[in-house]
C-alpha cells in the first residue's frame, strides 16, 4: 500500500485528490495539511511514502517544507504541485530534494501513475520533459560556483561515468545512453546507479538539475 500525505492550502483540491487516490486499491491517503509547517509535522507523524506538496501556501511554503522533509532523512519522497505558467519555484523545489513535479490540472490517471512512480524510487517525469523544464528555469535561477562544482564532480567519477552523467544530465533515457555509448541497457543501468550514488542524488531529476547547475550541460544543448 502506498501511503500519501496531501499538503495544499486549498481544501477543494485536497478533497479532489483524496477522492481520486482513494479509488485506487493500492493507495491510502494518510492525512492532509493546509500549510508547509503542518505538512512537515504530519510527515514525521504519519511516515507517508509520498508527500503531494503545493508550492504557494501561507507561512512555510512548499519549497521550505520540502527541504525540511528531505533534511529529516526519512523515506518520504516529495512530489511538487505547481501551476507552471506562473510558478517559477519548481527548480528550487527540485534543488530542495523533491522527486519531481506535477501541474495542478494533471489528469487523474497521470496523478496516480506519478505517485506510483515516485513511490517506486524514480522521478516522475520522462527525461525529455525534465530537460525542457530545467532549460526553462535554470537561466532564471543561476547557481553560484558552478565551475567549481563541475570540477569537483569530475574528480569523483570515472571516465565512463562522466560520459554517462553528461547524457543523463542532458535528459537521455537509458536506451538513448546505451545507443550513444554502444553499451547494453543493463550496463547503462549499473552505471547510472553508481553515478547517482557517488553524487548522492536521489533520482534522475536531481541529476538533470545538477548537470545544469554545474555547467556540465548548457541550456539549449
Task: Indicate the topology.
Elements: E1 2-7, H1 11-22, E2 27-33, H2 36-46, E3 50-54, H3 62-71, E4 77-82, H4 90-95, E5 101-103, H5 108-119, H6 127-137, H7 146-156, H8 159-169, H9 174-181, H10 185-198, H11 204-214
Parallel strand pairs: 1-2, 1-3, 3-4, 4-5
Helix pairs in contact: 2-3, 6-11, 8-10, 8-11, 9-10
Domain HTH luxR-type: 150-215
Protein name: Response regulator transcription factor
Modified residues (4-aspartylphosphate): 54
Describe this structure in words.
By secondary structure, this protein is α/β, with parallel strands linked by helices. It folds into 2 domains: 2-124, Response regulator (Rossmann fold), CATH 3.40.50.2300; 139-214, Winged helix-like DNA-binding domain superfamily/Winged helix DNA-binding domain (Arc Repressor Mutant, subunit A, Orthogonal Bundle). 53% of the residues lie in helices and 12% in strands. Helix 6 (127-137) runs parallel beside helix 11 (204-214) and helix 8 crosses helix 11 (204-214). It is globular. The chain starts with a strand and ends in a 7-residue tail after the last helix. 40% of the residues are buried. Pfam families: GerE (PF00196), Response_reg (PF00072). This is Response regulator transcription factor. Residues 150-215 form the HTH luxR-type domain. The modification 4-aspartylphosphate is found at residue 54.
Short summary:
This protein is of the alpha/beta class and 221 residues long. The chain has helices spanning 11-22, 36-46, 62-71, 90-95, 108-119, 127-137, 146-156, 159-169, 174-181, 185-198, 204-214, and strands at 2-7, 27-33, 50-54, 77-82, 101-103. It has 2 domains: 2-124, Response regulator (Rossmann fold, 3-Layer(aba) Sandwich); 139-214, Orthogonal Bundle (Arc Repressor Mutant, subunit A), CATH 1.10.10.10.
